[in-house]
Amino acid sequence: MVKRPIRPDELKLWSMVAGTVRPLPGRAVPKMDPDLAPAPHDPDAPAARLPAPDRPVHKPLRQASLDPIEPGRRHRIAREREEIGARIDLHGYGQDQARAALEGFVRRNFDEGHRAVLVITGKGLRGDGVLRRLTPEWLAAPALRDMVAGVSEAHRHHGGAGALYVALKRKPRPQV
Length: 176
Hints:
Elements: H1 8-18, H2 71-78, E1 86-89, H3 95-111, E2 116-120, H4 130-140, H5 142-145, E3 148-153, E4 163-168
């Protein structure tokens, strides 16, 4: 792959975006080139238009979705009449770490014969968190599809919109 030099307008746009990010606690603020610093925002000025991308922008393909958990079973899980075998909290994980942790968690619990688990994703800053949005897609992916019976939003006392009940299929009995 041949790398092209970064154009000045791209660098300026990146500097504007980077200027809106706060560093993690204990990390230093990166120094920014003063020539590329964003200009003060003028609310009366017309909105700036971004340059058109060099190539078309495509939305990512949607994975097949899972069915929701049947209402009766979801009610039993929420009331803990059907045991929640285990819980995993994905707060603080990056996407790759969260996916790997989720896959291992589901596989372990399926192998142990659990029928329901709780996955805490958090809601994100505005209720549209990345992990919250991606977890159902990961559960529907081929790696886990044969183990997962359904997914539904958790009851308020289990985390509400920031958590998911995952119903697991019965583990096949070994042939004798």
